[in-house]
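Q: I have 159 residues here and want to know how they pack in 3D. Can you give me a structure?
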Amino acid sequence: MSLRVPPTGLLPRALFGLAAALALAAFAWPVRIDPAPPPSAPWTEPLGTAALQRPLFDPGRRAWTGRGSRETVAEGEPPRPVLTVRGIRLDGAAASALIDDGSGDRAWLKAGEGRGDWRVTAITPDHVTLDQRGRSFTAAFMGPPATLRPKPLDPALRR
């Protein structure tokens, strides 16, 4: 079983020859290559100051327009602790909260106790107030309140 390609006419052959000649001419055509431009002058401003002198999204590109000093804005707020209140336990006057700070060590903490630079300042039935470097944060407990009281034993089991 042999396949035979039918002969082609004069027009397809002429078009193929023309395309081959154009490809050869494009390959051999001389091209002028300009030298690379000289490097621009080095940046003289310290990094990070240009955006503060000319705010990027200010329509008039005016000088500093924000309230407060640049140092306060650049410093920002202290990072908030990433805490999760897992439970609140109220036992008479003693209150404690089960707080997960992401370290893997969950602990029942009372008012005045804490980890790192944060401390528990107050515990109520629905939220815990924390203090970090003089700033107060409130973590709400979203779980349902539960009263834990032991059930009375069945008289048959009291023996």
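Q: Anything worth noting?
A: The two ends are 100 Å apart (CA to CA). The longest helix spans residues 10-28.
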